[in-house]
Amino acid sequence: MRININRNDKVALYIQIKNQIRDMIYSKRLPLDYVLPSERELAKMLKVNRSTVNKAYEELKAEGLINSDVGRGTYVAFCNEDELIDKSNNCKKHLYWDEIYNESSKNNYDDVMSKIMKTKDNGKMISFAGGIPSPSSFPKDEFERVQINLSKSKLEDMFLHSPVDGNIELKKEIKKLMLNREVRVATSNIMITSGSQQGLDLVARTFVNSNDVILVEEPTFFGAIQLFQTLGAKVVGVPIDEAGIRVDVLEYLINKLKPKFIYSIPNFQNPTGITMSLERRYELMKIVEKHGIPIIEDDPYGEIRYEGDELPSLKALDKNGYVVYLSTFSKVISLGLRVGWIVAPERVINKLSLFKQLTDLHVNTLSQHMICEFLRQGYYESHIKKIRKEYLLKRDLMIKELEKNFKEIEFYKPQGGFYLWCKFPDSIDLNLLLEKSIKNGVNYIPSNFFFTKNDMKSKFIRLNFTYPGNEEIIIGMNRLRKSLDEIYRL
């Protein structure tokens, strides 16, 4: 829960705190029954007296917005009429996680194996293809200071083993990070992974059996489609619109196909850049609780917002343990550090830990310590502000070049994330366009990879604007224009 106070403001501190919490409640960023930090915790977070927080909470209680119970703590009590009806109907099913593990994951594995991942970088052409952060945005000075401090104080620790589920100090810092995302969890609900892709792989291999149905947004991240299909799952696409996944179609498919999981990227969706609306998020959670269907929420881009209101994650709206949340530092700091995390019920984390030992003893210890110190020293927030400004300029530059050079192309302007989703005229052969573009020295990903049926006839391409430099964006757009003109001349 992020609260900003201004000590130079004439408005009393407790009023500032009260007003911001009240606004979050009214806007539904803090849903009904959300447990607020204790007075002591919030006072420590904001560096104010506990009495200041107490006065803010008392004012909110007087307005009927929050309440406190012994053993439960302070929680949001405000709800509208629809929420009262939903609560009184009490039609939510209880989810028994043990019943949906796949057959392989029911075994306990005593032995462990380490896997070394090798990556290659090809910089021969201007690439709009990868989901990669800008190399120039890496916080070199901050990480140099982090390394120096660690080498003086924790040199031996940096090269020792780590628990399979992750370094406890890093998990504490991620716990604070999740609190800023309106998600209140214990460290036992967190597992550190080698990026969110490993998290997705662990969850899929732990729960998905052959012929299980997985519902995904369509289009969606091709890595998820490939993973689910490799496991023998039947991957079924649910169309999206500008508000996110179509919940009417989703509920129809749930009734028809009885899926094992739903996979969703609510924030700045890959590849479309679409952000699921607040209303749609509530509708989605209502449907999954009604039918007892868990969700894998993939949130690699949530921090990279350029405009618009911040929205609660599905996990923040999850009151009954339906959401397995995935995130990563790969998109905001560095792809090479390979540090991500999972947030899930504790019993799920324990089962994932057993399965993780088969492929990865633990995430790189040095990377865990470096990320932990980066967060602890307060560098993370300033770095996020920096890359938001840099990527916003790059997004707008690519949009400017598209508007100048491609009058025939339609595209969606995302509020954050990494991508522009561009639609070409039906007359354009996208396979031929890609062939000519590569010859002309510019690369991107065509849309067919993002659909559950790879032969899907779609006229979109995905362009990444974060990795290339400003000059490369301009040159790359000119090369793409040249490639398109060559097709028109055929």
From TrEMBL:
GO terms for molecular function: DNA binding; DNA-binding transcription factor activity; pyridoxal phosphate binding; transaminase activity. It comes from the Bacteria. Pfam families: Aminotran_1_2, GntR. Keywords: Aminotransferase, DNA-binding, Pyridoxal phosphate, Transcription, Transcription regulation, Transferase. InterPro entries: Aminotransferase_I/II_large, HTH_trans_reg/aminotransferase, Tscrpt_reg_HTH_GntR. Residues 11-79 form the HTH gntR-type domain. Its cofactor is pyridoxal 5'-phosphate. Homodimer. Belongs to the class-I pyridoxal-phosphate-dependent aminotransferase family. This is PLP-dependent aminotransferase family protein.
